[in-house]
Design brief:
Elements lengths: L1 H26 L7 H21 L6 H27 L7 H23 L4
Length: 122
């Protein structure tokens, strides 16, 4: 249970917090209108590598990765709502980039889990 909490809440919160902090930084620049896409393009590969390295030597079943995906997506939805929508009242937060971000947040751990099922490191 402790490992799941670390994997789900710890890593999920870490990923969300990094994106949140970088989003605030980008909001203060002229790139604010496209910051969601910039964050998506920059952070998705980092998130994929970290997720792969985090889980690569543990031999976990695919349903575990589905649980992680649900937890990470719930964290992203909840904390985005609490700390972006309610706090800053953006005019139109839920744009295509945000929905793509939620989809990737859900699909990435599942994709890593599926990859690891057939490609276990030695």
């Amino acid at each position: 249970m402790k490992a799941f909490l670390t994997d789900a809440a710890g890593l999920g919160l870490a990923f969300w917090l990094i994106g949140y902090i970088l989003g605030i930084v980008l909001f203060l620049t002229p790139l604010a209108p496209v910051m969601g896409w910039i964050l998506f393009l920059c952070l998705t590969p980092v998130m994929a590598v970290v997720t792969y390295r985090w889980f690569s030597h543990r031999g976990l079943p695919l349903p575990y990765f589905v649980q992680i995906a649900v937890a990470w997506t719930a964290i992203a939805l909840l904390f985005d709502y609490l700390f972006i929508v309610l706090l800053f009242h953006p005019a139109a937060y839920y744009q295509p980039d945000v929905f793509v971000y939620y989809a990737v947040t859900f699909l990435l751990p599942i994709g890593v889990g599926r990859y690891l099922q057939g490609h276990r490191p030695a």
